[in-house]
Design a protein that fits this description.
The protein is α/β, with parallel strands linked by helices and about 425 residues long. Helix content is about 40%, strand content about 20%. The chain is globular. The structure holds manganese (II) ion. Manganese (II) ion (MN) binds near residues 117, 118 and 146.
Length: about 425
């Protein structure tokens, strides 16, 4: 990716408008760009958008600026963008197939058949602009938000972050909320753990001599000593053997820690779901404030977000036997039971912490439509599959290879799943 022209334009401009996507990757992109450009003495305005529309374009038109940077969005809407004024696009979404207009500089890894999340592109841009190595935290969080950390160019960002000491990768229990969720709750909600009744879990921990409370608060996995963690893992494996509970590798997952962030944001997976929660509740200014270190805002949004996630995950686990599966794919049709704004978040957490499945597709209803969200942990092209079959059933879809989404008419859910299964059969 060649940033030369984009850097030239950025250096020339004084007033810069950043238009970014509302999800975790987009918010991280906005954070990286605004911080790096403010360090250059630029005057920055930020506009966060769910998607680009004529309405958004009208809203940004009157804003005074020398340059507009679209991050984590824009490539799909080349013909909709203003014809006047300098524009830089730093995006990784599928590009509209027209000749790029003269006023636009587009940087998109797809052009080089590479995969890199929006925040990753913004980080590369920022690292060429100045000394912005600290901003790599947000490239890591953004790539986790898009479920891309271990794919393509994102892997290079991951390695760089490790080398800089800004990312620690540890092997730990496959649970959600390593740092900020009470351990007994994380265990109870994890499908790798055979016990799911509150008092059984509490008893299990007390038999292990692990205190639930420490320093006046409920302990999380992160609060355990190394010795306690070891004891816990061993007992979990024994408990799984007693219950005849599948492969023992399923007990572990990687934990991503950002040692320079405050404790509440130190777990990059938790950070990414927090940002998605802010985005889904349209609390964009609050999200950017929080990323500046104002953690007071976090509590309220987090409380609500935790409750919702926990409810949705427990609903999903409770109903898991009723969902359709095919080989390593699982179809979670939540109907009206999961907020369509949050189905993507739920599927992401689910595939990272609970599922033994390598492909998980979520469906959640929104009025007359059904929102689709798909995530994969193996080679597959979800972008292509969803683009094709959503259109086939009268909707639209797309995204990335490992994470994609779409919208279809409500009465086409069965047909959609049928086509999806046919697709897996073909490529298996
Ligand atoms: Mn993205």
């Amino acid at each position: 990716m060649d940033f030369t022209k984009a850097l030239e334009e950025a250096k020339k401009a004084n007033k810069i408008l950043i238009v970014s996507h509302y999800d975790c990757d987009g918010l991280c992109s906005a954070k990286i760009l605004s911080t790096a450009l403010e360090r250059e003495g630029k005057e920055i305005k930020i506009k966060i958008a769910k998607e680009l529309s004529e309405e958004i374009i009208k809203e940004i038109e009157p804003i005074e600026k020398d340059l507009t940077i679209f991050s984590d969005l824009g490539s799909g809407y080349l013909s909709m963008l203003p014809k006047e004024g300098k524009i830089i696009i730093l995006d990784h979404h599928t590009m509209e197939e027209i000749e790029v207009p003269e006023n636009i500089i587009q940087i998109n890894p797809i052009n080089e058949e590479k995969e890199l999340c929006g925040a990753g592109i913004c980080y590369l841009f920022a690292s060429k602009l100045g000394n912005n190595q600290d901003l790599i935290d947000y490239a890591v969080v953004g790539s986790i938000g898009d479920n891309q950390l271990n794919v393509g160019e994102n892997l290079k960002i991951k390695e760089k972050a490790k080398k800089l000491g800004r990312l620690k990768v540890e092997k730990g229990l496959k649970i959600f909320g390593h740092v900020n969720r009470p351990l007994h709750e994380s265990l109870r909600n994890s499908s790798m753990f055979p016990l799911n009744n509150h008092s059984e879990v509490v008893q299990f921990l007390s038999d292990l001599d692990i205190d639930l409370v420490g320093n006046g608060r409920l302990k999380s996995y992160y609060d355990l000593t190394k010795e306690e963690k070891g004891r816990l893992v061993l007992e979990i494996i024994k408990e799984r053997i007693r219950n005849d509970f599948g492969e023992h590798n399923d007990v572990f997952s990687e934990i991503y820690l950002l040692p320079y962030q405050s404790r509440k944001l130190i777990d990059a997976l938790e950070y990414s779901t927090i940002l998605n929660a802010f985005g889904r509740s349209e609390k964009y200014d609050e999200a950017l404030e929080m990323m500046k270190g104002n953690l007071d805002i976090l509590e309220d949004v987090l409380k609500e977000y935790r409750r919702k996630i926990a409810d949705y995950l427990s609903w999903t686990n409770k109903n898991i036997k009723n969902f359709q599966e095919f080989n390593d794919a699982l179809f979670i049709n939540a109907k009206e039971n999961i907020d369509p704004n949050m189905i993507g978040t739920i599927i992401s957490i689910f595939i990272n912490t609970f599922a033994e499945k390598k492909v998980v597709v979520g469906l959640a209803r929104e009025g007359e439509n059904t929102k689709i969200s798909a995530r994969a942990k193996r080679e597959i092209d979800l972008d292509k599959i969803l683009t094709d079959i959503c259109e086939k059933v009268g909707g639209s879809g797309g995204g990335h290879k490992q994470a994609a989404g779409g919208k279809i008419p409500k009465n086409k859910e069965e047909e959609f799943v049928k086509y999806f299964i046919e697709n897996i059969q073909k490529t298996a």
